[in-house]
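Q: Given only this backbone (371 positions), what sequence would you predict?
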């Protein structure tokens, strides 16, 4: 029997996708209160004060949608792997803290960053997500054994003591206006105690990595990324219009070389647009979401509408109910593939969130030669 040939390589968000990880909803929990989570959950959310396993019927529905999405990708010739869920409904602890449960393994993008032939496990900044990398270890071990050029790396695990979080964010009555003032001043819930970053705060543009500074990634985390990827140029960005700045992929989404859609409520500041504009990249406002509110028990905003998965520079997967986003991308010359995923949003996000690249055809290129 021939050994399966696996190549790990992905340099950007748009080259032809040939191998991907798609998450699962099995056993997902609403995490118990903790400092990073308390800052993230909106004050009017139906998730405030709730924690524990999600209802089995919602898990089954989400898994069906994720399975259907996986099958759709496979029919397009894309190899799909799935994580191996661990038991999330158990107390976890380190010498510094303990929490009542973990989270899940639907949003693979949050944990795993693929840059070239390296797959990196992010630090994570939520205590409930400290062990989440374990769901992906069987796959990463398989890739390591199968591809002699693959590099498996793990960023230093943070202690996540109380020193990592600002006490100002522990109040449940901060209000949106105060949050917007704080985020505009880059006063986030995470301190600079130690390097913190989630992989979903990082976008790959060939030789350049664009990293969001916000709730889940601090400046020390960005500095660690700069030191780790010595052959890349790393750019910190932030989006002042976002009161809950977590993960860049519902705010700033590259579609193909030269084109980015940007959340119109969270526009990239003028001084940070220079890199893109002087290299002839267009940044346009994303279409409005089709929904006025997120699904029940969902952390994410309505802007998961722009959380799309690009299959190649001419083809993009869009959540099927997000008709305005689909229409915009169609007018921009993309073939739009509708995917039913809204009932899985609550388990960790949209189409980009629930996937992690293993292999995209293409090579390392410089998309921003003027710097």
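A: Predicted residues:
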């Amino acid at each position: 029997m021939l050994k399966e040939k696996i190549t790990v390589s992905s340099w950007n968000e748009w080259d032809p996708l040939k191998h991907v990880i798609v998450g699962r909803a099995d056993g997902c929990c609403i995490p118990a209160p903790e400092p990073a989570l308390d800052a993230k959950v909106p004050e009017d959310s139906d998730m405030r004060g709730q924690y524990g396993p999600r209802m089995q019927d919602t898990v089954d529905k989400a898994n069906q949608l994720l399975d259907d999405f996986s099958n759709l990708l496979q029919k397009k010739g894309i190899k799909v792997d799935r994580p191996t869920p661990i038991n999330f409904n158990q107390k976890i602890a380190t010498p510094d803290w303990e929490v009542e449960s973990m989270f899940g393994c639907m949003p693979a993008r949050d944990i795993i960053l693929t840059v070239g032939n390296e797959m990196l496990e992010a630090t994570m900044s939520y205590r409930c997500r400290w062990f989440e990398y374990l769901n992906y270890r069987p796959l990463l071990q398989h890739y390591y054994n199968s591809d002699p050029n693959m590099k498996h790396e793990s960023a230093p695990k943070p202690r996540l003591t109380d020193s990592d979080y600002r006490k100002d964010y522990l109040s449940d009555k901060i209000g949106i206006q105060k949050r917007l003032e704080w985020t505009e001043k880059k006063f986030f819930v995470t301190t600079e105690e130690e390097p913190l970053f989630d992989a979903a705060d990082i976008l790959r543009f060939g030789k350049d990595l664009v990293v969001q500074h916000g709730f889940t990634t601090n400046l020390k985390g960005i500095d660690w990324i700069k030191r780790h990827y010595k052959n890349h140029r790393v750019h910190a960005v932030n989006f002042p219009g976002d009161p809950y700045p977590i993960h860049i992929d519902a705010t700033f989404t590259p579609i193909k070389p030269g084109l980015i859609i940007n959340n119109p409520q969270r526009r990239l500041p003028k001084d940070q647009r220079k890199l893109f504009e002087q290299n002839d990249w267009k940044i346009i406002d994303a279409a409005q979401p089709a929904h006025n509110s997120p699904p029940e028990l969902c952390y994410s905003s309505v802007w998961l509408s722009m959380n799309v998965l690009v299959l190649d520079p001419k083809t993009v997967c869009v959540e099927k109910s997000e008709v305005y986003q689909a229409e915009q991308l169609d007018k921009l010359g993309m073939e739009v593939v509708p995917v039913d995923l809204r009932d899985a949003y609550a388990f960790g996000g949209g189409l980009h969130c629930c996937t992690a690249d293993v292999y995209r055809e293409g090579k390392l290129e410089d998309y921003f030669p003027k710097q």
